[in-house]
Amino acid sequence: MGEKKRKNFVKRMVTGLVCGVVLGLIISLAKPHMSESLWDILNRIFFQDITTDEGRSAIGLFYIVQTVFTNALKLAIVPMVFFSIIMSVCGMNDMRKLGRIAGKTIVTFVLFYLAACLFASLVSEAVIGMGVYHEFVVDELAAGVTEATTSNILVTIVNAVPDNMISALSSNNKMLAVITCSVIIGVCVAAMESRIQVFKTFCDECSQITQKFLDFLIIACSPFAVFCMITRTFAIYGIDQVGNIFSYILVTICVLLVYLFVAYPVALAAVNKVNPMIFMKKMVKVAIIAFGAAASAPALPLNRETCVKELGCSEEITDFVLPIGMTINMNGTAIMHIIGTAFIATCAGLEVTPMNYLTMTLLAIAASMGTPAIPAAGSVMLYAVLTGAGFNTELCTLIYSLVLAMNKPCEMVLTTLNVVGDAATAVIVSKSEGEFNKDIYNS
Predict the structure, then answer these.
(1) Range(s) of the domain holding residue 420
(2) Cβ distance 176 to 156 under 8 Å?
(3) What is the average pLDDT value for the chain, to the nearest integer?
(4) What is the pLDDT of residues 32-45, one digit of tens each?
């Protein structure tokens, strides 16, 4: 996304968010003082669910916009996950050129992922136990979970391997199976190298088509959809219900910031035996670009320059780690997926079990690695983790749409964490290969 286009998108998103909150607050505060007939007219024109018996003669403009937008996002979930992960795994074929560097890079990425998911899971469980999140009071939507919710952790392995790939690809509720299929296909394609080009080109073009569709949907449609979703939420559910979303945002940002300022400095101090504050200070300018853009790509050139000229990393290692990391090293996205899924399930009145957290961790890591470089991609992929963990009731989908509408602050912070994590990995791998210049780092 060009700089001008990105700024315009951010401006329109913020405008839609603010306008939705303002109008929603006005309607929510005015609703108790309206006559029943006036509210009935407004509700039927703008907010009524037209799929119910009460909505047979209603228009429900805001409901239609919200539902069509959410369904369009869900339409792209399976192809986005499937083709993006295939291409991501295929791209790992290039790692053979760097041998040990590739292995060390992936191990470092996975360790950061596991630490991030464990931390997010512990915080989520603590926050849930403290009663910070409150259930949405919409009893008629709180249907039962359609996926099996067994306590046997080994069921996750069974569900991960489908007996029919086409059946798995036809449902948004079998994300773990979809991810398994895409990884298997990606590994096979990578192993066959130049012998299979047509299928690789097909998958790449399908991935580009999906990304183009989502790019249009999010850039062109999401500001107006956000406005409609937030306004309708305030009007229908009131201020108390929406306050739940702000609790999620606050918890997510706090966890992201703690991980940013603790995990990477501790890792650098332990592995490289250096002052981590020097690293954090030199990464400030890169972090600012990532935060403002809410995307990793705009920060890549400056991140590379900082790693090589200020952090003492090898050029060869930096040129390998940073582009790969921009695609598959998304610790912040994984944290958001864990906290977001636990929040949605809790607000929908569902219990989040240890097995759910394990499934969410596997899905969050795989989904984060397969997240394409499009605006708000992490928020879109949250739905894959949510349904893959078995939380796929109508109320879960409703709360997800609200999170999607108001998730911009979290996206900005998590992108910053992702970019800093790429640089930290470059420093660690350079040290392990004996190509870390400590004098440049300390200068």
Answers:
(1) 3-442
(2) yes
(3) 79
(4) 788 888 888 888 88
